[in-house]
Design goal:
Blueprint (H helix, E strand, L loop, with lengths): L2 H32 L4 E6 L4 E6 L4 H7 L18 E6 L14 H5 L2 E3 L9 E4 L8 E12 L4 E10 L10 E5 L10 E5 L9 E7 L5 H9 L5 E8 L11 E6 L3 H14 L5 E7 L8 H10 L3 E7 L11 E2 L2 H8 L7 E5 L2 H13 L7 E3 L4
Parallel strand pairs: 1-5, 12-13, 12-16, 13-14, 14-15, 16-17
Antiparallel strand pairs: 1-2, 3-4, 3-5, 6-7, 6-11, 7-10, 8-9, 8-11
Length: 371
Amino acid sequence: MGDGIWINILVSIGFLAAMGVILSLLLVLAEKKILDYGECEIDINNGKKKLAVTGGSSLLSSLSDNGIFIPSACGGRGTCAYCKVGVAAGGGMVGPIERPSLTEEEMERGVRLSCQVKVRGDVAISIPDEIFSVRRFRATVVHKRPLTHDILELRLALIEPREIEFTAGQYVQLESKEYRGRESVNRAYSMSSLPSDSGHIELIIRRVPEGICTTWVFDVLKEGEEVALSGPYGDFRLSGTGAPALFIAGGSGMAPIWSMLRDMRERGDGRTAWYVFGALTREDLFFVDELKKLEGELAAFTFIPALSNEPGGAEWEGERGLVTDVVKRRIPDLAGFEAYLCGSPGMIDACVKMLTGAGVPAENIFFDKFA
């Protein structure tokens, strides 16, 4: 074909693409400006709380605007699946974006992604009662302390409210600010601070290449700057059974475990506890001296750092290999143990497979699987 034909084809394709964008914008405009849904009511937990909202926005944002913060780590794009709520009435059809995140059983029970449910009329929903205790906080950055080449500790002093009540293992959602054309997003980070230090929050954050929030934290956010966050969220916490505990973490997954272990020390919890921390090389280790010191302060605690990619000739006398292999070598009998995991989804999946294979019941394995 001649050049003229190719040019006509490209022009036609460009025209169709442009028309698609224009139609999408017109649909959004129609939703927000032309269609008037008026005032709608959100009934929460059979009348425990009722909200009068202007229709047209997502259920997630409508609740947030009224001080009810549902967990969400993807900015409302329907990819994290944290924002699940029960919708008894008024939710409309399950859309293609949320369907992959819902099981058939969940859909039968009316579970929905609140970021994908549009409030176009009265809605009746159910949420866990603990969500009512979630608050939005203003805080000041006290310090950004490098822990490794790609992990830092962020310490925040609370401004309003001035204190937070949480259980070791829970997380908050940090709100980034717009920068360099990047939108503001919410991202979930486990708290590494002690619950007794109620006026501060500490987070251990790992840089994600091109990550909107982590790039903002590492490259834009300054000490002394004010930030916003919400919390506490999550059910990840140490049980009260007193059973032997096995902690497994990697990278910034250190955060909730660091909080739990120091909280155990403060409370005088003397249960048997093992902590296997996985890293690639010695450069990726941190808090090693502090954790070794903790071995002498907790009655039955053992800390095992393990390196999976340390060069063979390096002067490293500790454990090598994947954390799953290290656990099998060092703790061959896991009968009666409870396991607490924090790390990448892949690491957690591998650990769950290893633990269940070793006889640890699935109900005794606890984690928050941040994707």
